[in-house]
């Protein structure tokens, strides 16, 4: 049930990679997903150096919009980092790799520490329980 509900929620998110189909065999799982030609945001930054302010704002707004959509539907990515943001042919951000994501209920805490330590929030690193809360600085943007 979780995967069906998750897929249904994610269909409404334009800033996420679209998953067309999942094929399961006794030995393998295959996912047919949208092709995103621009590669990872991480590689783009490494190749081109820092982003200019206008481009940074545009990409940041797209990523925040995607995260906001997920959070409004109680989906937590849990591993958001430049390597998991892909760029399409028009340099639009697409959030990818929801492999560590989880769905939450109101008032529920996440207790499992996962994701990439270099990008994790302090409460995740310290092992504290985490709620689905939008930081104040994000609310101001």
From TrEMBL:
InterPro entries: Kinase-like_dom_sf, Prot_kinase_dom, Ser/Thr_kinase_AS. It is an enzyme of class 2 (transferase). Its cofactor is Mg(2+). GO terms for biological process: autophagy; cholesterol biosynthetic process; chromatin organization; fatty acid biosynthetic process; intracellular signal transduction; rhythmic process; Wnt signaling pathway. It catalyses: L-threonyl-[protein] + ATP = O-phospho-L-threonyl-[protein] + ADP + H(+); L-seryl-[acetyl-CoA carboxylase] + ATP = O-phospho-L-seryl-[acetyl-CoA carboxylase] + ADP + H(+); L-seryl-[protein] + ATP = O-phospho-L-seryl-[protein] + ADP + H(+); L-seryl-[3-hydroxy-3-methylglutaryl-coenzyme A reductase] + ATP = O-phospho-L-seryl-[3-hydroxy-3-methylglutaryl-coenzyme A reductase] + ADP + H(+). GO terms for molecular function: [hydroxymethylglutaryl-CoA reductase (NADPH)] kinase activity; ATP binding; metal ion binding; protein serine kinase activity. AMPK is a heterotrimer of an alpha catalytic subunit (PRKAA1 or PRKAA2), a beta (PRKAB1 or PRKAB2) and a gamma non-catalytic subunits (PRKAG1, PRKAG2 or PRKAG3). Interacts with FNIP1 and FNIP2. This is 5'-AMP-activated protein kinase catalytic subunit alpha-1.
């Amino acid at each position: 049930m979780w995967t069906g509900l998750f897929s249904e929620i994610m269909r409404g998110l334009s800033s996420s990679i679209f998953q067309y189909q999942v094929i399961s065999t006794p030995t393998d799982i295959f996912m047919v997903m949208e092709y995103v030609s621009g590669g990872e945001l991480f590689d783009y930054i490494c190749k081109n150096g820092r982003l200019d302010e206008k481009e940074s704002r545009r990409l940041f707004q797209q990523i925040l919009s995607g995260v906001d959509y997920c959070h409004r539907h109680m989906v937590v990515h849990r591993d958001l980092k430049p390597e998991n943001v892909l760029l399409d042919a028009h340099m639009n951000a697409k959030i990818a790799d929801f492999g560590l994501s989880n769905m939450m209920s109101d008032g529920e805490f996440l207790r499992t520490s996962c994701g990439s330590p270099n990008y994790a929030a302090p409460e995740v690193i310290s092992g504290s329980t985490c709620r689905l809360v939008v930081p104040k600085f994000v609310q101001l943007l």
